[in-house]
Amino acid sequence: xxxxxxxxxxxxxxxxxxxxxxxxxxxxxxxxxxxxxxxxxxxxxxxxxxxxxxxxxxxxxxxxxxxxxxxxxxxxxxxxxxxxxxxxxxxxxxxxxxxxxxxxxxxxxxxxxxxxxxxxxxxxxxxxxxxxxxxxxxxxxxxxxxxxxxxxxxxxxxxxxxxxxxxxxxxxxxxxxxxxxxxxxxxxxxxxxxxxxxxxxxxxxxxxxxxxxxxxxxxxxxxxxxxxxxxxxxxxxxxxxxxxxxxxxxxxxxxxxxxxxxxxxxxxxxxxxxxxxxxxxxxxxxxxxxxxxxxxxxxxxxxxxxxxxxxxxxxxxxxxxxx
Amino acid sequence: xxxxxxxxxxxxxxxxxxxxxxxxxxxxxxxxxxxxxxxxxxxxxxxxxxxxxxxxxxxxxxxxxxxxxxxxxxxxxxxxxxxxxxxxxxxxxxxxxxxxxxxxxxxxxxxxxxxxxxxxxxxxxxxxxxxxxxxxxxxxxxxxxxxxxxxxxxxxxxxxxxxxxxxxxxxxxxxxxxxxxxxxxxxxxxxxxxxxxxxxxxxxxxxxxxxxxxxxxxxxxxxxxxxxxxxxxxxxxxxxxxxxxxxxxxxxxxxxxxxxxxxxxxxxxxxxxxxxxxxxxxxxxxxxxxxxxxxxxxxxxxxxxxxxxxxxxxxxxxxxxxxxxxxxxxxxxxxxxxxxxxxxxxxxxxxxxxxxxxxxxxxxxxxxxxxxxxxxxxxxxxxxxxxxxxxxxxxxxxxxxxxxxxxxxxxxxxxxxxxxxxxxxxxxxxxxxxxxxxxxxxxx
Lengths: 323, 444
What we know:
The structure holds two protein chains of two kinds. By secondary structure, chain A is α/β, with parallel strands linked by helices. Chain A folds into two domains: 6-204, 3-Layer(aba) Sandwich (Pyruvate-ferredoxin Oxidoreductase, domain 3), CATH 3.40.920.10; 233-312, Alpha-Beta Plaits. Helix content of chain A is 29%, strand content 22%. Chain A has helices at 6-12, 27-38, 115-122, 133-141, 147-158, 163-176, 181-195, 226-231, 262-266, 298-302, and strands at residues 15-22, 45-51, 60-68, 83-86, 105-110, 125-131, 199-204, 246-250, 272-277, 281-287, 308-312. In chain A, the strands form three sheets. In chain A, strands 2-3-1-4-5-6-7 form a seven-stranded mixed β-sheet, sandwiched between helices. In chain A, helix 4 runs antiparallel to helix 7 (181-195), helix 5 crosses helix 6 (163-176) and helix 5 packs across helix 7 (181-195). By secondary structure, chain B is of the alpha/beta class. In chain B, strands 11-13-12-15-16-17-18 form a seven-stranded mixed β-sheet, with helices on both faces. In chain B, helix 2 (49-59) runs parallel beside helix 8 and helix 4 packs parallel to helix 6 (133-142). Chain B starts with 13 loop residues before the first strand and ends with a strand. In chain B, 50% of the residues are buried. The A-B interface holds A 32, 35-36, 39, 42, 45-54, 72-77, 79, 178, 215-219, 227, 230-231 and B 44, 46, 48, 73, 87, 159-161, 163, 184, 216-217, 220-224, 322-326, 328-329, 410-413, 415, 439-442, 444.
């Protein structure tokens, strides 16, 4: 497995990039910034657009980017990207962010983990870049948002511009949006901090048959009303919409639940556990956060005893032994 | 002792068959002088389709009031315009935020009628356009060519809900009376919006316009956009737009206010049809002038790709929108592999459909593959138009009808290849179904 040369692809054909993340997580801005950067070269053509549905903040979204020295004709989605970006590891619970990437492709992950750990965990073959973008965001931008870091990392992976140009292009874009100078300065610090925090390596961990391009076998039977099943959470893992790193917790050691049932009636996913109770009518005993809790906060808002809380949660990291 | 009595100063006016006209009621020169240019020289910027649409409307001195109802995520036109107007270059331009789309269309009607020499734009999408329907049909018949509804195409078959781009909303409004022009790519969006009012306000046309582009696929796609200096845009538009010869509120020629008997109703409809047909003569002239001034293709009936000099394509594709670009990306390889002459057109003028021009372009093709992207209970809206255009020929090409990209679904390269292969079956005289739906390279 030899890493693919991105600058050569950009010159000879079209460099295709795909990103996975969550709505509100900065993926779209990162891709717009990249597109904006490469449009600085008048010889380069760029096409960038997001894909999202009507779902709320936290839902999985995708972004696409094509960069080429030749006019770009294709308008379809990118299904075999040479570069794959994972903005939010929570998004990878729902989609295979490496799907369709050829061996030798480039992977860019916003994570605290090392390139080696990510290559093993996600079974990646190619160049793997990691950057702790959320941490950089918290430190400099006061929010766990990795768009600045992913922008710098992707630009470095593709090549063609020095850090001074990267910083200038990004800040110019912010200024055009009339962002206050203090925010511009914080972004400058985040951009420069990212340059010091990127790690990379080349790995060959992909197993045969893994990350193959998706095939479409038709819709099967779609009887009248089937759209209801497609929309309801029973077939959509709405827990994937929840912000990463947080989880709902129900605690009632002193049995304060008064049986008002507000949480039961307000939960849009029907995941509150309860038992019949002779005195209260119902007694809430817990909440199943495994599949459908999207942290909408309804239960937290309506519980008079404040028995529901949104607490930090460390995602389990499965350490896979290299094959 | 004398006493001076002051009263209303009578405005200069004259009487026409359509009512009283007050040419000096609005000082157009003051409106023009109040415009603060966005661009002093040609520039390259990065923009998505919605931004391109917003910039184009903001650059016209005749656009002063921007009425709208937010319809995110399809179009942020009103937000983008409002953001600019709140800034240092906003000048005297004003936003009129309405409580619903129907109210927006009503506002357009009133404002357009109050001053027929200014341009009144808005943008909407899907059910937003549907909500306007009661008024759009009146507007279409009104003779108010200075009203412009920018439509971000989105599926109107709202069950199940889908927010991606398909042109069923525009196609459901084919007979509202608007001139409907489809765009692909932000440059075409920008250029079309600059030209559309010129066409609509021509005294022989006087018909409102509805430029449109695909939701998400073009509305949210960023790329390089060339913007022209405001003064050049003004020079282009002012060369075409003359003072409207009719009063602000035309009683006789409008659907507003008057109720007529059927005898007269069809007379007005006849006049409306004839005005629309004049579009077919004027549009190429306006497009040619735009190209001469700005160096880019102007308005056209359709975009063509790779037509043989003698017009005798083996396989001719008819489609619209940005997915046509994906066809262009596979065309050469497919033609080489099959040794067929493969060509295509992307329709730009939807209404009135340019049937003569389409017939002339397709008449020597062997097979015509029409790709429809909106739900239709028959063979497809576009197929019916193409079939009608070719119906006068003694030996018309065989028409193969396909659907792809419904609801804005991706139309991938394998899908185009599969559709071409499907149509190729007709070259050998094979029997094909009346229509077929394709997705991800699969015939469904």
